[in-house]
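Annotated sample (chain length 225).
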Amino acid sequence: MPVRIEKAAVNGVPGWRKWVEDSSLRQRLQKGNPRRLFEAERENYHQVARAGLPFARLIDEGRSYFVVADAGVTVRALARAGAAQSAEFRVALEAAARTLARLHKAGFSHGRPNLCDICWADNKITFIDLENFGPKHNSADGHARDVLIFFFDILAERGGVDDVVLAAAKAYRAEDYSGTWARAQARLRRLRPFAPALLWLTRPVAHKRDFRGIPGFLALFEMDL
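Output written by the structure step:
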């Protein structure tokens, strides 16, 4: 299978080149037309640049590719680096929470702010991956969805609510002037009646990353921070 994303350099600036996906029929049916998706993401990079938002910078482009500048290590990589970088992870995570809140304040949503799509370098947060960025998410509900995705990914990494998670939540809330956190709580509260069944059904896989964070995720949004 052809490499879709690869390291690149443009005039000495390190970056990542992304090609139009050469997808199978099944992938096309699941994800849509790869050319249309590619062009939409390219335009998204131009849009965030015009708006001065904290996203990776587009440094080169051609008909079937574009290159974004390298933005540093991902916050997920810091989370998995262990004790040697635990202090830096906490600082980066709090910065990511604040930056996400400021993005929402500016009227934009990321669409899928997982820790692997958030980079840290020189005490600065930069978002990457604009496949899910767009007008359909740039709303109060889109911002709330961002918050849920962001903190679910954190809880999946941490396995439960601890002082690091609480610090990130408080960092977001300190910048939240539009009630986004409360809106996220309300969305999750609608699913609360199904929580016991969900926890029971996922017991066999509760040790796996995408499931171990569920109890803490539910607990976090019930807390009065």
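Annotation: The chain has two domains: 5-69, 73-220.
Annotation: The longest helix spans residues 86-105.
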